[in-house]
Write a structure and sequence with these properties.
By secondary structure, this protein is an alpha+beta fold. The protein has helices spanning 3-18, 29-36, 61-67, 80-90, 105-115, 127-133, 137-158, 167-180, 242-261, 268-281, and strands spanning 23-26, 44-48, 51-57, 71-76, 95-98, 120-123, 185-186, 191-194, 215-220, 222-224, 227-228, 231-236, 293-295, 302-306, 319-322, 325-328, 332-335, 338-342, 347-349, 358-359. Strands 4-3-2-1-5-6 form a 6-stranded mixed beta sheet, with helices on both faces. The chain binds zinc ion (2 copies).
Length: 360
């Protein structure tokens, strides 16, 4: 079981050498989980050459020693950053990389002050997120299972949506079904948005009751074996009127256009553009108010972003969502979201719930 962790540490090591630093401070729990297997959420990891030292407190020491691979664990009594600074000084580390997105200003000040001028801090944005974005075979297998679980819960919920049921009851059923099927928890707070509220892309469930002849957007994801899933379907309670059907078809085609272009080497922004163009052709692009998708893995929102102007190319092994939508104030919203695995010449759906309009 050491293999993936040793390989990942090696890959980071190569990047650190290229960046001309002798060590790196890892402050993001998903990053240290990726590098060592430690699933706790309090600590700091120092990667020095091919070895790693985890600084954590008494609550996590046993866990870190049993879960961590290729890592020595320092159990700290006092502030973690004090221990990190002392270790850096003792081991004469002079140049260290860190991701500015993962450290607070206060933490960075503490480190700089404690280490003094002997240590130079080099911001290395995106090193870990790029490494993590390309999944290996075991990660992809796990993500397939997490996606299948989300799909099962979605299909269960279609049988649960009825006029009179509150959004909060749907959310409670959703959480219960995820856990019952083995999820360690939700990947994010689920979105259950009905009627005009469905026009809010990130609406949280409320006490509002579902009504006949309304749209309902369900956006849910589970964490299974550490990996997240993310799936959205839009249902209509009753028989959808012509205008709603047309909007639904436009979103469906926009998603298909994004899926059609998504493959290795294609700039991320092109997937966004392909989806947006379809909606523009129907005069609906002004209602598409977010980007087309995002990477997903140990965290629900990961690198890369499938957004306007993103020039970096997709890489085989990345898992991304493709999730266009239209949101019309006062009426409602429609979103269709799936996860796809980027392959050399196309992409493959990991979420497998039918994408047609669900009328209940
Ligand atoms: Zn989602
Ligand atoms: Zn998403």
């Amino acid at each position: 079981m050491n293999a993936p962790y040793a390989d990942r540490l090696n890959a980071l090591c190569v990047r650190l050498r290229k960046a001309d630093v002798s060590a790196s401070l890892v402050a993001c729990p998903a990053d240290w989980r990726y590098l060592t297997g430690f699933t706790g959420d309090s600590g700091f990891l120092l990667v020095v050459g091919r070895s790693a030292v985890l600084f954590t407190d008494g609550r996590y020491t046993f866990q870190a020693r049993s879960e961590g691979r290729n890592v020595s664990v320092v159990s700290c009594q006092g502030p973690l950053l004090g221990a990190v600074s002392a270790w850096l000084n003792q081991n004469r580390i002079h140049k260290i990389g860190f991701d500015p997105e993962d450290l607070t200003v206060a933490q960075f000040r503490t480190l700089r002050h404690a280490c003094g001028s002997a240590v130079a801090w080099k911001p290395l944005s995106g090193t870990m997120r790029e490494l993590r974005s390309v999944k290996d075979g075991a990660e992809i297998a796990q993500m397939r299972r997490a996606a299948a679980l989300a799909g099962d819960v979605m299909e269960h919920l279609f049988g649960f949506l009825k006029p009179g049921v509150r959004e909060l009851e749907v959310a409670a059923e959703l959480d219960y079904q995820m856990r019952k099927r083995g999820a360690s928890g939700p990947a994010f707070e689920a979105i259950v948005a009905s009627g005009p509220r469905s026009a809010l892309p990130h609406a949280r469930p409320t006490a509002k009751r579902l009504k006949k002849n309304e749209l309902v957007v369900l956006d849910l994801g589970a964490i299974l074996g550490g990996y997240c899933s993310d799936l959205t379907r839009t249902a209509f309670l009753g028989r959808a009127p012509k205008r709603i059907r047309e909007w639904y078809m436009a979103v469906h085609e926009a998603q298909a256009a994004g899926v059609e272009v998504a493959r290795e080497g294609v700039p991320c922004g092109d997937v966004d553009l392909a989806a947006r163009r379809v909606l523009a052709g129907r005069g609906l692009d002004k209602y598409f108010i977010h980007s087309t998708g995002h990477g997903i893995g140990l965290e629900v929102h990961e690198w890369p972003r499938l957004a306007n102007g993103q020039k970096q190319g997709l890489r085989a092994g990345q898992v991304v969502t493709i999730e266009p939508g239209v949101y019309v104030r006062g009426i409602g919203g429609i979103r269709i979201e799936d996860e796809v695995l980027i392959c050399p010449s196309d992409c493959e759906f990991l979420t497998r719930v039918p994408r047609d309009l669900v009328e209940l």
